[in-house]
Amino acid sequence: MTVEEMVAAHLAEWQALEADVAWLRRPSISRRDPQRILDFSRRYRAACSDLALAMAQRFPVETTGYLHQLVADAHSQLYRTESFGLVDWLQSLVLVVPRRIVTDPCFWIALGVFWGLFLGAGAAAILRPSYAVDLVGAAGIAKIEEMYSKPPSTFGDDAQRSAMTGFYVMNNAGIGLRAFAGGILGGVGSLLILGSNALTLGAIFGHMFTSPQRDNFVEFVTAHGPFELTAVVLSAAAGLRLGWALLDTRGWSRLESLRRTAPEALSTAGLATVLFILAAFIEGFVSPSTLPYRTKAAVAVGTAAILVVYLSLPLFVRRIPAGRGVRDDA
């Protein structure tokens, strides 16, 4: 077949493919014609074959170049990456992420482990005063008691509080990152880090509840507690999800199983990061402020309510409206 014969035989299909590419590029299309999509796919495969033939037979540069561009344009439409859509992103954040979390057994395991150990350590520290000293150390307990020997409103000026907010962000992020990364050890690392933090925090809370510094301690930790403690649980849950993917691969290789699970785990870890940052700002500016305790308690109640409502959304919204960028892989 000569070049002229090939062009004459396929020109109509090439022009139709050009028209399909232009049609797919139009941003105003909300509903695409399924049959035209099928025709586009068929014409794209045919154009790829024509390009291979043109290159093998050393067709003129003009013809080969035209086919190169046509195939490239069609390829970019067939395998394109969806652009960012604010509505789809918000829909995913509000509906898909909480649904993944509350339907993930790893979240409930992490939640049970943390609060079980936290409350158990707190009760032990209240019933046996030496428990907190044995667990945290005499020096550590003495430092905490000294820290809360004065009202939180005396904890530095605005500049110092800003600096401490940065420290809280880094410290909290470090805890969350370790809990998340520990999941690569089959989830054992996440559980160990979660359990260690739960025992330490529980012992400190139990000890401080029976100490002379109780009022100052309670006033400081109340406002930022819900966000910070929930973030720790979510970080460990994300790590457990990664660890479980390595143990239960569902027939995939371990690397492929990890790759497929990563988006779910990262969405949970991302929410934990947001909560850590919010908790740090509350801890830096609200907890040590001169606001009355009832206001700080109201912040705690409000943030806890936000978390409950957010994680309960899947119970009230049964169906997620179709969107271009939203996938529920839970």
Task: List key phrases describing it.
elongated, 330 residues, 13 helices, 2 domains, mainly alpha, single chain, 77% helix
Protein architecture, described:
It is a single chain. It contains 13 helices and no strands. By secondary structure, the chain is mostly helical. It has 2 domains: 3-78, no CATH class; 86-316, no CATH class. Helix 5 (105-127) crosses helix 11 and helix 8 (158-181) packs parallel to helix 11 (225-247). It is elongated and about 95 Å long.
**What best-fitting shape do the alpha-carbon axes yield?**
elongated
Relative strand content = under 5%
Low-confidence stretches: 320-330
The average pLDDT is 86
Structural category: mainly alpha
Calculate Rg over CA atoms: 29 Å
What is the number of beta strands? 0
How far is the first residue's CA from the last residue's CA?
Answer: 53 Å
Helix and strand element order: HHHHHHHHHHHHH
Percentage of residues in helical conformation: over 70%
